[in-house]
Specification:
CATH topology of the largest domain: Class II Histocompatibility Antigen, M Beta Chain, Chain B, domain 1
Bound molecules: 2-acetamido-2-deoxy-beta-D-glucopyranose
Helix content: 25-40%
Oligomer: single chain
Structural class: alpha+beta
Mean pLDDT: 87
Order of helices and strands: HEEEEHHEEEEEEEEEH
Number of helices: 4
CATH superfamily of the largest domain: Class II Histocompatibility Antigen, M Beta Chain, Chain B, domain 1
CATH architecture of the largest domain: Roll
């Protein structure tokens, strides 16, 4: 391949055009980081023809790598140009700069979830107990909700929903834990979210909440009242019927 043709190909990369029924040459730039401290940022540029990626620059590798014969040739060529230095610089100038802005502008808008822990099902003979941990009205969407029994992460018998969009920029998520209670154990729901500086631990209080106690009190009063009324009715009936017998005919 002569040099002018290769230069032409390099130029087409910068012109992103979509032709109907035609051909599409484009690249995708990505900045990846696992922490807001920006200690492990990676800059990736993947170059595609139609949907086929044929070369990639990875900042950890430091140069272009080709995926097909053509891609390998192109990678070799790009690696020989000053373009490579520009790509190496993009980790600082493009990725870290943008990520710093993203972290300060987007994350400062983080809203803490309201977390509720409640019993969905009480433990009884044939039934396991079930708890539900719900996180409401948080932003952004990324969240981690998991369970601990005596400080150890529970991985089985957990079902969780996806983060559900409330439609007003806030999200909610629900996680269920099915378990057989052991006496004296501590069950907690742990929530990790951008709005917290550390994981938040919510302990389950197995004593009945007020609303449950009220339900039981109302039920018990109803039962007592029912017994009194039936007893009164029975006595009244007995008195009446025995009274009838006593009346001389
Ligand atoms: C970039 O290269 C490093 C080192 O080979 C590798 O661990 C990493 O997964 C690569 N990243 C991507 C997105 O391919």
């Amino acid at each position: 391949m002569n040099l002018s043709l290769q230069l032409l190909l390099l130029l087409t990369l910068t012109v992103r055009t979509v032709l109907t029924g035609g051909y599409y040459e484009y690249w995708v730039d990505e900045c990846l980081s696992s922490s807001s401290a920006l200690t492990d940022v990676e800059y990736i540029r993947t170059i595609y023809f139609n949907k086929d990626p044929y070369a990639r620059f990875n900042s950890t590798v430091g140069e272009f790598v080709g995926f097909s014969e053509y891609g390998v040739n192109q990678a070799k060529y790009w690696n020989s140009l000053p373009y490579l230095q520009q790509m190496r610089g993009a980790l600082e100038s493009y990725c870290k700069n943008n990520l710093r802005n993203d972290f300060s502008v987007v994350l400062e808008k983080a809203v803490r979830p309201r977390v509720e822990l409640k019993a969905e099902q009480q433990y009884s003979g044939g039934h396991t107990a079930m708890l539900m941990c719900s996180a409401y009205d948080f932003y952004p969407q990324a969240i981690d909700v998991y369970w601990q029994r005596d400080g150890k992460k529970v991985t089985t018998d957990v079902t969780a929903t996806e983060e559900l969009a409330d439609g007003d920029w806030y999200y909610q998520v629900h996680s269920h834990l099915e378990y057989t209670p052991r006496s004296g154990e501590r069950i907690s729901c742990v929530v990790e979210h951008a709005s917290f500086s550390e994981p938040m631990v919510y302990d389950w209080d197995p004593s009945l909440p007020d609303s449950e106690r009220n339900k039981i009190a109302i039920g018990a009063s109803g039962l007592v009242l029912g017994i009194i009324l039936s007893a009164a009715g029975f006595i009244y009936y007995k008195k009446k019927s025995s009274g009838r017998i006593l009346v001389p005919s």
